[in-house]
Specification:
The two termini are 42 Å apart. This protein is globular. It is of the alpha/beta class and 1089 residues long.
Amino acid sequence: MNPIAQFTPKEPILFNPIDLLNPEYFAQSAETLYARISPLYSADEACWMSQLLPLAKPSDSERDAATEQTRQLVEYVRNDGKAVKMVDSLLLEYSLDTQEGILLMSLAEALIRVPDNYTADALIRDKMSVADWKKHLKDDNGFIVNASTWGMMMTGRVVSIDSDTTASKFLDRMTKKMGEPVIRSAMQKAMRIMGHQFVLGETIEEANKNSQPYRNKGYTYSFDMLGEAAITHRDAEKYFNDYLHAVKSTAHIKVKEGMPKPSVSIKLSALHPRYEASQESQVMGLLRQRCLLLIEAAREVNVDISIDAEEADRLEISLKLFESLYRDDATAGWDGLGLVVQGYSKRALAVFAWIARLAKEVGDRIPLRLVKGAYWDTEIKLAQQRGLSGYPVWTRKEGTDTAYLACARFLLSEHLRGLIWPQFATHNAHTLASIMTMSAHRDFEFQRLHGMGDALYDHILQAYHIPVRIYAPVGAHKDLLPYLVRRLLENGANSSFVHQLLDKSYPVDKLTIHPYDKLLTNDYLYNPDIPLPLDIYGARRASFSPNIFVESQWHPFKAAIDKQLEKTWSATSIIAGQAVSASEMKDKPSAIDSGVNVHRIRAPWNHKVIAGTVDYATADIARQAIDNAVAGQQEWQAVSAFERANILRQIANLYEENYAEFMALCQVEAGKTIQDSIDEIKEAVDFCRFYADEAERLNKISYEMTDLNGHQSKQVYKARGTFVCISPWNFPLAIYTGQIVAALAAGNTVVAKPAEQTSLIAHFAAQLMYQAGIPVQALQLVMGAGDVGGALCASDTISGVIFTGSTQTAQRINQSLNNHPQANGQLPILIAETGGQNAMITDSTALPEQVVRDAVMSAFGSAGQRCSACRILCVQEEVADELIELLQGNMAELVVGNPLSIATDVGPVIDSEAKKSLEAHIARMTAEPTAKILAQTPMSSSSEIHQDAATFVLPTAIEVKSIDVIGGEHFGPILHVLRYKARDLDKLINAINATGFGLTLGIHSRIENIAEHIERHVVVGNTYVNRNQIGAVVNVQPFGGCGLSGTGPKAGGPHYVARLMKLEAATVNPASIMSQNNHTQAVTQTELA
């Protein structure tokens, strides 16, 4: 059964939306209605939207009224000479479809937090030198636009600007005339002016003062304390205290009589660093306690609390928390606990139905804020990256608007009055008009953002007397980033209604079209330009993953894994399709563990758990495997590329059908966490499908030539022969599979020697390969340790070796191959991917929280057992203390323990030998005068395993004075931290290059010129900018290094399979030369290499 059928709901739509308008629907229990939420997570968009349409469909009178009202609102706003101001004017002038708009956002996001002048000047120069700021300085612009532009122009009045002056030349002239300090000061002032427009006040007291003019007009407020996604408990405690202070201070903020009381919006991610579905015990523990304290304080001073919406992965855990709070005695008889729901979510309507039932059961009115949603881009990209079955959000803007109105119609239902207080957050004039026309009452409010939509909502207040609440951020400008980015992404593009409303050149008639009507003019209810996550590579299907943060997918997935965990496995070598036991060949009994050949595999996280047994091969078996593979090579090569490709695709399908068993094996034998196991399987599947495509692509390539005598010849790709594939334990399925299927795709036969620590995974995968159609002559499997690998590499009949492992072993294999040429005198080829002393360089423009998240994931994910893992975090001196403090706090939040638990972040290292080596390095660094232990994460308090019965190494951060003191690669959860001076960047680059390794590099900087400079000069295979440096995706980020890190070509790239083939002469049919000319390619040095 395919994995989507196994792990996603077969019938995700469990109710008819139109039934929600019937009060009798809510005779069903809250538990029943809750069960209808999760299945809709990635429901088929066309199917679910078609069911929502009747609820959103306007009557003729509603459509006509909404159209006329929208026209009046648009004309009123455009005729108001003061309408376009503050944030509106900034977004209108600096739209994100202009280069200046993007650069302005980048500059505003980074400049204020940069502490050192050297980097600040570099950032200004980087953003200023590539755009045309002059065109934005106009007489009719508002103060904020011209203030920002003046900053960009560095007080342009001082130096005349002619039409031929480029931004770069202008900046040079200004620097010479005024000096960098003056320019820097002007820029910083401009950024603060801009930031001030987005923030109501830096403190709640300042916000109280600044909001008075609006409250006099009749507005009420919801205060949002800036800062979110705490990554340490210290952050969370600060945000909690900020919220508590805001609640108490809001009690003194008065609004006009009859207006809803002010409220404070809280972000749960700000109140706990592990607000995640996988950390439910922490969410329902400390986070719940903090929420109750805020609720008690708010209730005491008569201030509402509203829980903000965040990413889709957090919805279901937030609903559990909300219900627990709502049913608590602390909220009994209080109607001040509200919730925000995103209209772009496919689950929104089901959430509202469940909340309505809760309100009916408990009896306390619930304020519900309906927003369009601010994380759309993130949700789309995450779904694609993970390989989900669908999207959690609508893919058309008019789809979101239609779903929003469907939700609104339900919230305005007569039978919900007194149970729900609807709050409609929108800047879309048509949405406003539609809500007002579809409602038979006025028991609701509108909400707008601070600094946006003043003229529109002033008119709503005066003409319609509907309450309006301003959602206003409060806090320091340095905390503005997440809010600013969301606002710009929501409203900064030309397609946004906000932009179109203010743009007088945009036809009013287009703004009055009902989204329901606009949606139905499309050929499809979904957006065909946004392919489903599994279809983003076109004909090549992407690998699938269930979403473990969504109950309707996690529960069946976990149940399937648990069933497989009841098994034990066994593995032997497979020669010519037959299991071969070294013990049996010796014709004597073998006691497990005491014998030479049969070994018991123990789970690295608990040595009492036996995964199974493995029968190691001998050198004789290894040579037998080589002989069989060589003998079967011609037969496999004769199989067409098309057929070979189809077999590889079938391997991918079988891997996905056996997802749960692979998960169990990865967790028990390799000690991988749940997410790491998923990533492992996905990469293996991607290798199969990509190399299948490569087999077909290379088969079509031919090089035709005519010599001076007119003789024609043609060269085509052919298999080389037999390859030995030696794979590591850290990616026991992905790299193992990638090596084998690449060689098989090329038409070579394979002798596979997996790492002895993970033989069970390899054996199960090989069985599926045979099941998919790989002939028994084409693939031989040999179990064993290094001595078996040595025997395989000493053969003079192999054409090459594909190896992933240590640099030292690769060097020994290379020497062995040099000593054993083939019969034709040619040396076998070696493709080796080895270790890395991988660095991440971060300067003072980088966002510290992002750096820490990425460094921690890169260093400690997979217990640091990745070739690509970050080993050295290089931090600019001026921000090192702050960043190290964040690193220490974030490491304290890691959960180290049993990888079977969804809560675990870091599992064990592979075996006792690895543990001993890593702990020896930590001990050496502890004694080293130039090093200092910064942090070490303890075992999880819930872990029941004693360290002596497992191979855990505690995640450790060590500050060092130089790279030299580290002494090579340490393959585990150890991160070294090195300070550097900005002016010494090139010295740092030279030190990184001097290690001799060249695998991965991370760069965190908002200065493109610096990022490019580092990328050009550090010699590595893969560079990652402003993200983590692990998790290369097949054919998206081909992976491989240089120097001591490998030979190339990169795995998962366009040259890998070709390297496993050779160009040979083929017979040319002269009559077909002309017809084939269009299908031939010129010979290139790269392809022939």
